[in-house]
Amino acid sequence: MQVTKTKLDGVLIIEPKVHKDDRGWYSEIYSERSLEKAGISFRAVQDNHIKSKKGTLRAIHFQNSPKAQAKLVRCTKGKVNDFIVDLRKTSPTFKQWIMVELTEDNKLQVLVPEGFGHGVLALEDDTEVTYKVNELYHPDLDRAICWNDPALAIDWGVSAPILSEKDKNAPLLKDSDVNY
């Protein structure tokens, strides 16, 4: 696997090796041992799978401490723009964000550490994304930030996304109780 650092400390783009032949292809998409060899400490305890219509925006979600989650995200069908936002108040990159295009063809994965928000915009119908997390889901610690918060100035590339009620009503970062 090839690991690429980003401008956000700890956020990594992972490109798994793909072995192709006349039958198709094979790729190891998760191996704790391979990640450790690459200097990455991540142990998954839950695997999630989402399916979205084109234009669906799953806005900036995160899980507060003491059960903060790291995520290993990949697109298994279709195409998404994957957004990662630094929510660590003492970080030099606080409120900065990056976008990575994940597709079923490029097979890239993004490691989103604890302390970061994560959002996904589906660029095609029937897009599917899976993500492994290192901490179980805790509804009482589940949070979201307003997708169009001017303090973040995220260029989503869409003006009228399909949003859940939770995302429509999410607070601005300044009004949230993010505790990183």
UniProtKB/TrEMBL annotation:
Keywords: Isomerase. GO terms for cellular component: cytosol. The record marks 137 as: Participates in a stacking interaction with the thymidine ring of dTDP-4-oxo-6-deoxyglucose. InterPro entries: RmlC-like (IPR000888), RmlC-like_jellyroll (IPR014710), RmlC_Cupin_sf (IPR011051). SUPFAM superfamilies: RmlC-like cupins (SSF51182). The active site is at residues 61, 131. One of its GO terms (biological process) is dTDP-rhamnose biosynthetic process. Its EC number is 5.1.3.13. It holds the Pfam family dTDP_sugar_isom. GO terms for molecular function: dTDP-4-dehydrorhamnose 3,5-epimerase activity. It is an enzyme of class 5 (isomerase). It catalyses: dTDP-4-dehydro-6-deoxy-alpha-D-glucose = dTDP-4-dehydro-beta-L-rhamnose. Pathway: Carbohydrate biosynthesis; dTDP-L-rhamnose biosynthesis. Homodimer. Catalyzes the epimerization of the C3' and C5'positions of dTDP-6-deoxy-D-xylo-4-hexulose, forming dTDP-6-deoxy-L-lyxo-4-hexulose. Belongs to the dTDP-4-dehydrorhamnose 3,5-epimerase family. PANTHER family: DTDP-6-DEOXY-D-GLUCOSE-3,5 EPIMERASE, THYMIDINE DIPHOSPHO-4-KETO-RHAMNOSE 3,5-EPIMERASE. This is dTDP-4-dehydrorhamnose 3,5-epimerase. It comes from Vibrio gigantis.
